[in-house]
Design brief:
The chain is built from one helix and 30 strands. It is mainly beta and about 375 residues long. It has one domain: Methylamine Dehydrogenase, Chain H (7 Propeller), CATH 2.130.10.10. InterPro entries: WD40/YVTN_repeat-like_dom_sf, WD40_repeat_dom_sf, WD40_rpt.
Length: about 375
């Protein structure tokens, strides 16, 4: 396949205004309303997942229109042509820890692998039910997939051979999935429940944690693996990953679909219904700045930070990816500080720092609502 070249076929204003929100949503900490850097337009249907590449310049998005597209964060334009193959709607994307391979889950139950220039790696892994969630192990040796039928498969990343599973979760659909930073555990979110499994044996370790009142559409591990952040109903919740104890609830004025942790600050991003988008301080559990809602108030299904923490993006029901500069949303984050140590565990309990890609929420996937 020939190399793609950048095509400046779009005209994108450098700053795009965000809609105002009620004062009660969050303290007004900015001197002015935050504005988006770019909106990537071109998909014909809802965007369910996207990833930042490791160069911090490019984004790859997947949509229910069945295509993947690569975008330039500097220009705001599409790079090359849309990536098209069989399989129908794209429900999940996940980037390998080395940043070279993209796993793609589709509604027909298939898992495809692509390089970052849009060439599909031969051999498609087949399954029996739509793949709603994907996660790479921190070593890059395995890919886990969660399906609409409630099962998890853990495969060898190169051959596709199933090594663990199918794990019968009894969670309805597996709408979110994430390996722990060390790769020894895997968390799954389903119909109002969370479970944590031994990734080597498929045996349950924690849960099911119940009564979350809605599909758990996003799960993200803390840096040291001691906590699990989730999105469901109107709350982002923080759980102890060993005991399953609920530690904190962060309330919003609408239902949430996705959460993501910043790699450079103690910040959690939350997005959901009505275009709601809010940053939170993970130490104080207080909101950072104003909500930065999506214009038109379409639902937002996925959110992520780039590796260097400079950008945040979200996508959803308006068929677009919106890119923000994080300091425009929260100007107080002027110094890039490392993630702080968790206060309620001892140094002996703190696990070694994993590869960055293992704790970013790069493959959040929502429930199977019909897109607008």
């Amino acid at each position: 396949m020939p190399e793609y070249t950048r095509r400046r076929r779009c005209t994108v204003p450098s700053q795009l205004p965000a809609n105002p929100t009620p004062e009660s949503a969050a303290p007004q900490m900015q001197s002015k309303t935050p504005t988006a850097k770019h909106r990537f337009e071109g998909h014909q249907r809802t965007i369910r997942s996207f990833i930042f590449l490791h160069d911090n310049i490019h984004v790859v998005s997947g949509s229910w229109d069945g295509t993947m597209r690569k975008w330039d964060c500097d220009t705001g334009c599409l790079v090359g042509e849309p990536w098209k193959r069989e399989g129908g709607r794209i429900l999940a994307l996940a980037l390998s820890p080395d940043g070279k391979t993209i796993a793609c889950g589709r509604v027909d139950g298939s898992v495809q692998r692509w390089d970052t220039d849009g060439k599909m790696i031969e051999s498609i892994w087949r399954g029996g039910s739509g793949v709603w969630s994907l996660s790479w192990s921190p070593s890059g040796g395995h890919i886990a997939s969660g399906s609409h039928d409630g099962t998890i498969l853990i495969r060898k990343a190169k051959s596709g051979k199933v090594e663990v599973g199918p794990i019968e979760t009894n969670q309805g659909g597996v709408y979110s999935l994430a390996f722990s930073p060390l790769g020894d555990r895997i968390a799954s979110g389903g119909d109002g429940t969370i479970c944590i499994w031994d990734s080597n044996t498929g045996e349950p370790l924690v849960g099911p944690i119940k009564n979350l009142y809605h599909h758990v559409e996003s799960v993200v591990w803390s840096l040291d693996g001691s906590k699990l952040y989730t999105a469901s109903d109107r709350f982002a919740r923080v759980f102890d990953s060993i005991s399953g104890k609920l530690l904190h609830r962060l309330e919003h004025d609408n239902w949430l679909y996705s959460v993501a942790l910043s790699p450079k600050h103690n910040v959690l991003a939350c997005v959901g219904m009505g275009g709601i988008a809010q940053l939170w301080n993970t130490e104080s559990h207080k909101p950072l700045g104003k909500p930065f809602r999506q214009e038109g108030r379409k639902p937002l299904h996925c959110v992520s930070f780039c590796q260097d923490g400079q950008y945040l993006a979200y996508g959803g029901g308006d068929n677009k990816i919106t890119l923000w500069t994080v300091q425009d949303i929260a100007p107080q984050l002027t110094v890039r500080a490392p993630m702080s140590k968790i206060q309620d565990i001892t140094q002996e309990e703190t696990q070694p720092e994993p590869p960055l890609s293992s704790f970013l929420d790069v493959s959040s996937t929502p429930t199977p609502h019909s897109p607008p």
